[in-house]
Amino acid sequence: YESKKIKSNAKLFVNSMEESYLMNIIIEQELKKAVDNHELFMVYQPQIDASGYIHGIEALVRWNNAILGSVPPDKFIPVAETSGQMLKIGHFIIDYTLREIKEVQKILNITFQTSINISVRQFMEVGFLTHFLNAIESAELYQVSITIEITENLLIEDIQYILPLLEEIRGYGIQISMDDFGTGYSSLSMLRRLPIDELKIDKSFVDTIVEEIAAQKMVQNIIAIGKNLNMHILAEGVETKEQSALLKAFGCDRFQGYYFSKPLLKDDLISFFQNHEKGQLIS
Ligand code: C2E
Ligand code: MG
Ligand code: MG
Ligand code: MG
């Protein structure tokens, strides 16, 4: 009986391994045509400040493929990274986002902060900053209205390269946000040396903050560390009024999550701004 059980477990393991291995190969192949076939597009999730006004948006990529259907970025960005496709996709994300955001700002006659996720490979690519600056200029946006979101994973790379590049980016007025803070490779001594404007508290802390004292303490400590380093604190994945109220009481500056809005297509973002321009989203 035991050996039969081990055998069937092994088979299950092989099956799921093959499935994800094959799936990644299909993703890799399909991804090669995705940009040229116009299968990728962007959605924008509003970020709200502590007085309830819209601070800005985070741009999030979406992929609809004929065979695979809608593939979440968590699944295909890592494949793009390892299969050498991130540069092309990264350029698409930057150009498309800045062009659409310029349209939104022109139509509404306002400016707001635009956050773009930059993957590790994208950041490490020679010429990343040059392309980014050119794209901002082509879109006729202000450099200070742009934020890049990096993750703690970036810190595993050569810090002698990363640190001066981050300083240079900051020197252009572009803001730097540390995404998913508290989930990755973090060192407080490193955090102190980085030119970071904003810490994004990961959704996993927010998820349990109402029920768990431990999560509350963790979040309070993250906020204290960030504030001491003169950083803004954004809570991500806020889904309820209770979470929002608690995070605000703890001193969070900015909030993002389904409680305020899901990520929106450009036209829906315009409507969101029009409906909320004068109204407050939290009290
Ligand atoms: P992230 O940058 O931490 O983005 C936040 C994720 O949480 C997004 O998922 C967003 O849709 C989701 N989210 C926001 N509020 C809520 C909420 O209240 N509840 C729940 N359940 N989820 C919420 P998404 O769009 O699937 O993106 C997942 C990850 O994929 C992102 O995490 C980011 O790491 C990556 N990603 C997405 N777009 C891009 C992109 O344009 N470039 C790069 N390099 N990575 C991207
Ligand atoms: Mg992000
Ligand atoms: Mg995040
Ligand atoms: Mg995340």
What can you tell me about this protein's structure?
There is one protein chain. The chain has about 280 residues and is an alpha/beta fold. It is about 50% helix and about 20% strand. The protein has helices spanning about 1-35, 75-80, 85-110, 120-125, 130-140, 160-170, 190-195, 205, 215-230, 240-250, 265-275; strands at about 40-50, 55-65, 70, 115, 145-150, 175-180, 200, 230-235, 255. Strands 1-2-4-5-6-7-8-9 form an 8-stranded mixed β-barrel, surrounded by 5 helices. α6 (about 160-170) links the parallel β5 (about 145-150) and β6. α3 (about 85-110) runs parallel beside α11 (about 265-275). The longest helix is centred in the N-terminal third of the chain and has 33 residues, at about 1-35. The protein is globular and about 50 Å long. The chain starts with a helix and ends in a 7-residue tail after the last helix. The model has no long low-confidence stretch (mean pLDDT about 90). Keywords: Membrane, Transmembrane, Transmembrane helix. This is RNase II stability modulator (GGDEF/EAL domains).
